[in-house]
């Protein structure tokens, strides 16, 4: 089931998510709905707060980064990378930070360069609540860090310098009011004016 994606300005996006256990109600259905929602919106990651749930759960599928003609082995690593992260904890962030142009399904039409570490070590539970510890690098690490921020109540716009964020203020306010052109289902915190 396609869920509405919560727009910028909704308080759920600024709350730190709660840990869950295997008894969380209808978890499999939620995860399936999150993947369907993400794919419908043509995203590469989606966190539970973005569908209105303040829990520590996010999903990633970097396949859309790869086109059918791609031959670069580094880029091909992105194809088929599809994972579920429950109760994640980033244990290490390493390397010299690098900029990459990021966007967010909760903040449509805005893309900005964000500086992040190129390598992370993360501990999380998979959908079977098995504890996993893995290292990720490059674009996969970046997508994971972006989604991890969501379960900590942080948006990519929070990582911008204050002057740049002020420059975006009107556009961000319009998104929160629903004044934005999108082709997927969203839930806006403020009524259209």
Topology readout:
Blueprint: E1 5-6, H1 27-40, E2 45-47, E3 57-61, H2 73-76, E4 82-94, E5 98-102, E6 112-116, E7 119-125, E8 131-137, H3 138-151, H4 162-177, E9 186-187
Parallel strand pairs: 1-9
Antiparallel strand pairs: 2-3, 3-4, 4-7, 5-6, 7-8
Sheet with the most strands: spatial strand order: 2-3-4-7-8
Low-pLDDT segments, ≥5 res? none
N→C terminal distance? 29 Å
The residue-averaged pLDDT reads 93
Q: What is the CATH superfamily label?
A: Peptide deformylase
Under the CATH scheme, the architecture is Alpha-Beta Complex
What is the count of helical runs? 4
Q: Tell me the major beta sheet.
A: 5 strands, antiparallel
Structural class: alpha+beta
Shape: globular
Strand residue content: 25-35%
Concise synopsis of the structure shown:
The protein is of the alpha+beta class and 193 residues long. It has four helices and nine strands; from the N terminus they run E-H-E-E-H-E-E-E-E-E-H-H-E.
């Amino acid at each position: 089931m396609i869920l509405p994606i919560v727009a910028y300005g909704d308080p759920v996006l600024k709350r730190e998510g709660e840990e869950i256990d295997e008894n969380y109600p209808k978890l499999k259905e939620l995860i399936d709905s999150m993947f369907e929602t993400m794919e419908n919106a043509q995203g590469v990651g989606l966190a539970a707060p973005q569908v209105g749930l303040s829990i520590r759960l996010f999903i990633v599928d970097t396949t859309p980064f790869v086109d059918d003609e791609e031959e670069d082995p580094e880029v091909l690593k992105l194809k088929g990378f599809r994972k579920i992260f429950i109760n994640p904890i980033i244990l290490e962030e390493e390397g010299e930070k690098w900029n990459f142009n990021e966007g967010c399904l909760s903040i449509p039409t805005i893309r900005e360069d964000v500086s992040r570490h190129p390598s992370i070590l993360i501990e999380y539970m998979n959908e079977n609540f098995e504890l996993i510890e893995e290292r990720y690098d490059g674009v996969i690490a970046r997508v994971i860090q972006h989604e991890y921020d969501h379960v900590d109540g942080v948006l990519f716009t929070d990582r911008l310098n204050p002057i740049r964020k002020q420059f975006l203020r009107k556009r961000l306010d319009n998104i929160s009011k629903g004044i934005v052109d999108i082709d997927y289902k969203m839930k806006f915190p403020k009524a259209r004016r």
